[in-house]
Design a protein that fits this description.
With 427 residues, the protein is mainly alpha-helical. The protein has 16 helices and six strands.
Length: 427
């Protein structure tokens, strides 16, 4: 223990100092030797660590989404070079470099949290064995050994012998019941966290091996917590239960307010955003403007939920702008099809049906049956002025009509296009 403690002294000393500072505060409220004072000190340590890890958590979200986006390309590389593992690895690294992604970024919060976990584990083990670690002196060591959480000593384990538990002033039944309940809660919170990630915040349009791996981890992690949890002291179980609950709440907040594109969570978010924007007529927060800006920038690459959101705004008389704001739309009838092509709701203007040559010459009515605005002009050139009306006009008009009809019939059988002129006869 001394060798391990000396190796981790660079982190056990700060961790023990933070616990002592929180214990000083809570000890003044609940008493120095109570389980509330020491238990809340551990909980406060977890909250402080997780607050410091928020930037890493944001990077983890971005890295996970980038990996989800790259899954189709990675699958193509695997299929193309399935017989050449070296070339496959080179192409994968090239893809990561071109896109600026790092597969290890999704593990950053866990890796960064591991030193604190080991430090707290050794501090609590030191309390259980009566060894002073870090800034915990003899007086604080005795106070921590007297602290009980729901009847279980802070440094006791599920696999502890009855004699050791009795030496800490507790019964083996109380210790095993408390540790069993905490292990179940710890595993259940881990399972629920992974499950809501898989069912709500995964792009359902892309089926990749990455999704299968995440689904497998949904069952592997809770089993690991259950197996290793029986060897953790009660104080470490408090640490892990608190960090799991924090992760679950943090992920619920991210899924609700910044969901993965194409997921069920995005569909629910855009539905809420549509109601909010149509009610107020604008986007009010920076986060809403960022979401709308990203959707507008996608153009024809929008998924079905994003197209439904844009169409809903258009039908409500609103238009999403490239800067993320929403204004009154000029044409509320514009919608988008599944491929992102804009379609107007107004009917097309019907072009008038073109008349044949015989109809134009005979002055027939158009197919629609409506009277033309101006009388159809005959193509036959008249030598007489229009106002000259010879006698017997009715008979001549009838003859003219019959003559034009005969000519139209004769001309309708001719070949279309320019006619070859007849050669002049030689006299």
């Amino acid at each position: 223990m001394d060798t391990i403690a000396s190796i981790f002294s660079f982190i056990t000393t700060p961790v023990s100092w933070v616990i002592v500072q929180f214990h000083t505060v809570y000890g003044a409220i609940f008493g120095d030797d109570t389980g509330w004072a020491w238990g809340l000190s551990i909980v406060s340590l977890v909250i402080l660590i997780r607050i410091c890890l928020i930037p890493l958590f944001v990077k983890q979200i971005k890295a996970t989404r980038a990996m989800q986006t790259l899954q189709p390309e990675m699958k193509k590389i695997q299929e193309r070079y399935k017989n050449d593992k070296q070339r496959q690895s080179e192409e994968m690294m090239k893809l990561y470099k071109e896109t600026g992604t790092n597969p290890l970024s999704s593990c950053l919060p866990i890796l960064a949290q591991s030193p604190f976990f080991f430090a707290l584990y050794h501090v609590l083990n030191g309390i259980a064995s009566g060894d002073k670690i870090g800034v915990i002196n003899t007086e604080l060591l005795e106070s921590a050994r007297k602290a009980h959480i729901f009847g279980a000593p802070l440094a006791s384990k599920f696999t502890e012998s009855a004699s050791k538990v009795e030496a800490l002033g507790a019964s083996i039944t109380d210790v095993r019941v408390v540790t069993a309940v905490m292990i179940v809660l710890m595993s259940a919170s881990q399972f629920y966290t992974q499950r809501q990630l898989m069912t709500k915040n995964v792009d359902t349009t892309v089926k990749t091996p990455f999704m299968q791996q995440q689904k497998m981890l949904m069952y592997v992690f809770p089993i690991m917590f259950a197996v290793f949890g029986i060897n953790f002291p009660v104080g470490v179980l408090v640490y892990w239960l608190t960090t799991n609950v924090w992760t679950m709440g943090q992920q619920m907040y991210v899924i609700r307010n910044n969901p993965t594109p194409g997921s069920k969570a995005q569909a629910a978010y855009l539905e809420r955003l549509h109601k909010h924007v149509t009610h107020h007529g604008k986007t009010r927060s920076r986060g809403e403007r960022a979401i709308v800006k990203a959707i507008v920038a996608k153009g024809r690459d929008r998924n079905e939920f994003e197209r439904k959101f844009i169409n809903g705004l258009n039908k409500a008389g609103l238009a999403a702008q490239p800067d993320g704001t929403v204004t009154k739309g000029v044409n509320p009838e514009v919608t988008e099809t599944e491929d992102g092509t804009p379609v107007t709701g107004t009917a097309k203007r019907q072009q008038p049906k073109r008349q044949s040559k015989s109809q134009r010459q005979s002055g027939a009515k158009p197919a629609g049956g409506s009277e033309p605005d101006e009388p159809t002009t005959s193509l036959v050139k008249s030598d007489k002025p229009e106002d000259a009306k010879p006698a017997g006009g009715a008979a001549k008009q009838t003859a003219s009509k019959s003559g034009s009809g005969t000519r139209s019939k004769a001309q309708s059988g001719q070949r279309k296009g320019p006619q070859r002129p007849k050669s002049p006869s030689k006299k």
